[in-house]
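Could you please review the protein record set out just below?
***
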Amino acid sequence: MFERRVACVLGGATALHHEIKTDLDFADVIVLGMPLRAVKNLQEYIGVSDGRMAELMSVTPKTFRSRKEKFKPEEGNHAYTLARIVVETEKAIGDKEAALDWLSSKQPALGNRTPIDLVRTNAGVQAVEDLLGRITYGVYS
């Protein structure tokens, strides 16, 4: 169920050019190259500009604009991770708008950093996931 929700945020099988049933299916998509359409669907879903999406994917705006069909694996992995965190946040917070607001707001438990900026690194992803787990299980601090 979770993988399918992440796939929906990315535009589903049509945008991903692959039916998603497990995390391994996402691994295949990432290795083959995350389709531009999937990244654009995520961008639209979270409502950010090209420049901001490039920043979140750790590429330059010029690189982001130059991708015509697919992103390199490391770039696509950033998009997948961001989509996964968005879905995890929606599950913990309750709805899309509240989740997107939370992701872009400074969180004291994250050293007054915004979760969306932290998801560019593995360590940041872990910190955000840990906090979402605490929120989910009622031990937020």
About this structure: The mean pLDDT is 95.
